[in-house]
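Researcher: Re-running this chain for the archive, since the previous output was lost when a drive failed. Same request as before.
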Amino acid sequence: MKIPLIRFFRLFFPFLALLAISGCGKTPSDSAPAMVKENNERIFIVDRTGKEWDVTHAVKKYGMKAEDFQFGLGPFSITPLDHPPMISPGDPGYPGSRENFLVIGVRLNNDIRAYPIGTMLCFEVANETIGQQEVAVAY
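Model: Regenerated structure tokens:
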């Protein structure tokens, strides 16, 4: 059985703690009102990266106002953990039996992994290979 990220968590705890305190990025109050663009009866909002989002259905069917939409950080703005290092019981950095923290557990074909929630708060996704299977662990 391998337990991931424990060594990573210990080495980078000060950095991760700073991210957690700062909210891991922008907050909803940092979101800007969307720019509205209309094109042949379609209604779009345009985020700060220039990506257009079709909100026609929300506006026409549900009466939402396109100018009231807000965008946050945008797609691909939170970097995932990519194949985080794994450690096993007895390896340096493996937690003691009295250490407690919450984890997300994954079991696939009797291969077990654990991802500390404190770390996943800032990364949200861990791309991983478990056995021969590529998986994405999301929080």
